[in-house]
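Aim 2 progress. For Germin-like protein, the working sequence is reproduced below.
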Amino acid sequence: MLPILLLLLQLSLLSPSSAADFCVGDPSLPTSPLGTFSCKKESAVTATDFIFSGSLATPGNVSNLLKAAVSPAFSSQFPGLNGLGLSLARLDIDVDGVIPLHTHPAASELLLVTQGSILAGFISTSNAVYCETLNQGDLMVFPQGLLHFQVACGDSPAVALASFSSPSPGLQITSIALFGNSLPSELVEKVTFLDDAQVKKLKKVLGGTG
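Predicted structure tokens for this construct:
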């Protein structure tokens, strides 16, 4: 009985109660099993804890393989979001740039295009594809956990704001998960139906070994 009581006490310290107005995260304290930060003492909370003066107004560095950048305002960058069930990120996609197929295991995503045009889409669990070109002012939603992507269209860079239904949405990029790891090439070939040359080429590009 005592271990159960101790576990309940720990969980109550790690997450905001229903009576609490907020739970500003304290990264110096342990996180809960769900990944939320422990609450900062309310007496130590100030107005600045609810303000993010980060990089969302500044274009991200798109000098990379993807020609794209994501500038996050998640709970790890903005502890005031802790426990509130939302977060935000800025997407910068250069001409011919791409945010490749990926998932957010812990959140749905709402994308607002603020500059340029983006070809965006997602794939359902029945393998139906929902894809559309978005222009400035357009919104698209990506349901939680589903594979989705964004590609810049036209001859100018694109910018978008992505909001999430979690302060820590999580991220897994499909190509990196497959080819940026230490799984033996033979095993990757078996599970992807690709030949040895293709797998080794992708592993070299994405930093994988084996």
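The mean pLDDT is 90. This observation will guide construct design in the next reporting period.
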